[in-house]
Amino acid sequence: MDDDENYPQWSDEEDDDHFSENVFDTADYENLDTTSYAYTVVTEMSLLTMQMEQLNIMKEILALPENSARILLINHRWDVRRILELFERKGKERLFSEAGVTLHENNGPSLSSQSTITCNVCFEDFSMDEVSMMSCGHYYCNNCWTEHFIIKINDGESRRIRCMTPNCNAICNEEVVRKLLKSKSPDIASRFDRFLLESYIEDNNKVKWCPSTPHCGNAIQVEDEIYCEVECSCGLQFCFNCLSKVHSPCSCKMWDLWSKKCQDDSENINWILVNTKPCPKCQKKVDKNGGCNLVKCICGQHFCWLCGAATGSAHTYHKIKGHSCGRYDDEKVKHIEHAKRSLHRYTHYYDRYKVHADSLKHENEFKVTFEELVRTSKSEESNHKSFRWALNGANQLLRARQVLSNSYPFAFYMFGDELFQDEMTPEERLQKQNLFEVQQQQLEFQVENLSMCLGKGFHGISDTELFDTSLHIINLTRIVNTLCKELYLCIEDDLLSPLQINHPIAPYKSQALTKNQ
């Protein structure tokens, strides 16, 4: 394949003014940020604001107090759209009842009409100001309520503390909980408020904590799609769905299997099966380190490497005295051959996955270098001297290298027997594998081109050479971006879409080609 065949290019013969006006303007892109994706970084400062926005929507639409709005939102995982749909379908009374929201307050006996009240938990009498009633109408002494709240908070139920009355589904009023806890246990009251605040993250399908270690304190909120890759303001990139490192085009299931396979001993076991034999006496695994078929275990037992039978020690290079190999064991040979193929296949994909992962670590230095060039370049210099195009190229290179690295574990499972054995005939599998590998190889070729061009550096070259180099790198950046898109289209439309088993992957997003508005 020619380097730049069938891809947009710019002629070196174009005049400088035309080039500056069109090529650099259209290439003036920023790094990937949260505004170009449908997700938002939730900081500790913005958490309360975002939570209050949702609470105010519920309070306004359904005419609810804040406590009831929070109960409803927590019960339905802060999904306003879902709540409104259920409101139309189930009606107000059923919706509220199922969530633990009481429709009518103070439907129990009036406390003001009595001088003393008997608590039905401790059975002691209390004055009216020592008793509290929830909106469901049930009342108990403040001491019993407080102990109940403390137990529930310590048990991890702080966001949905139910009334003490048996069979009562009502959630306790947060103002009452807060007031009683502050007077007896301010620390637990603070924990209660913190848990209510963090319920916007803990009980929300669209918000998850950043998995950084140590934890940065941020969370990520997505708008619609949970199968996406996001970047926290702390710099960590991760899969929103499974919280693993960025792994597309692998599905979360594929990545989980691959991560475990790289960590466990499954391939070591295959190597042992292929390259060792059990001693017929002590059953320890023995590795043959010479050409002779008579081997000796550390326990002293001699045996035949070909058939595994115990023998004496007398032998020549070609024959063991008093021994001839037994019958051919077809199943044993098949088992070993299968282990050999599995080991070879895994090694093939792992080696290429690792090579690209190692290149990614090295190429991160490009980004650091070009960020410094952009920072120190003078604003009045022409566009090709601003080095923005080099930084864009480095960002695109990092994204494409990541895609390439992860494309090998994807291929390992896509065209293996572990996940999709019954989904494709051998002929279909071979055809799809060839289609995928053509796309993969094209991307690989252009990624290496871009890496080589960026790795040369730009010191000591003339202004004309720098101008020509910037042209070439801008062109390569766009080519690599196009090939990444085509690889994802191939995976989504030709490989995964026909399968009965659903394996959603995060959509491709370019880190270099997000337009600066």
UniProtKB/TrEMBL annotation:
One function term, GO molecular function aspect: ubiquitin protein ligase activity
Domain RING-type: 115-329, 119-163
Regions that span the bilayer: none
Leading EC class: transferase
Domain of life: Eukaryota
Enzyme Commission identifier(s): 2.3.2.31
Swiss-Prot/TrEMBL cofactor(s): Zn(2+)
GO annotation (BP), single: protein ubiquitination
A Pfam family per the record: IBR_2
Keyword Lyase appears in the UniProt entry: no
Gene3D superfamilies: 1.20.120.1750, Zinc/RING finger domain, C3HC4 (zinc finger)
InterPro entries, sorted: Ariadne, E3_UB_ligase_RBR, IBR_dom, Parkin-like_IBR, TRIAD_supradom, Znf_RING, Znf_RING/FYVE/PHD
Reaction(s) this enzyme catalyzes, per UniProt: [E2 ubiquitin-conjugating enzyme]-S-ubiquitinyl-L-cysteine + [acceptor protein]-L-lysine = [E2 ubiquitin-conjugating enzyme]-L-cysteine + [acceptor protein]-N(6)-ubiquitinyl-L-lysine
Keyword Metal-binding recorded: yes
Biological function: Might act as an E3 ubiquitin-protein ligase, or as part of E3 complex, which accepts ubiquitin from specific E2 ubiquitin-conjugating enzymes and then transfers it to substrates.
Protein known as: RBR-type E3 ubiquitin transferase
